[in-house]
Amino acid sequence: MRGYFGIGAEEISKPMNLGALMRTANAFGASFFFTINAHPKVREAYNSDTSRSFDHVPYYPWDSPETMLLPKGCQLVGVELTDDAVELPRFQHPQAAAYILGQERGSLSPAVIARCAHVVQIPTKFCLNVGLAGALVMYDRLLAHGGYPARPIMPGGPPPEMNTKPKAKG
């Protein structure tokens, strides 16, 4: 898979949500993880991050959208329910992207939205848990950039000898 991605959240306050998001980011091969103005108690995220992502994925805790520094060419992609957001299944992911999710009980701030090159939404009836939303975005990126062939027309998968999915790392 070419390119890279990072993922993070703005004003996240629940340690278990942060830990779950970090563990999922590690599992999907994120290059970095970040927060913007995270609540101080998120340091307890170790309790729910059984993969100890802090030891494997760089973590950047920025104080504000203005202090956030992304690598050159990395496009910020907001994940938010807005009228003008592109539905995730219709979105072409940038090769170099940083995905940002909003706080648990609110939306991305106008300052973050202003920094976003793209805003996407998951086509659901209402907001999802931040950890689940992040997992869906990373899974969609994997499908888009992972080199998987088109799905079969009939239900089921390809014959076992044609199943070329990457092996999971233990």
From TrEMBL:
Residues 150-170 are annotated as: Disordered. It comes from the Bacteria. The keyword Transferase applies. Residues 9-139 form the tRNA/rRNA methyltransferase SpoU type domain. GO terms for biological process: methylation; RNA processing. One of its GO terms (molecular function) is RNA methyltransferase activity. Gene3D superfamilies: 3.40.1280.10. Keywords: Methyltransferase, Transferase. It holds the Pfam family SpoU_methylase. This is rRNA methyltransferase. It comes from Candidatus Viadribacter manganicus.
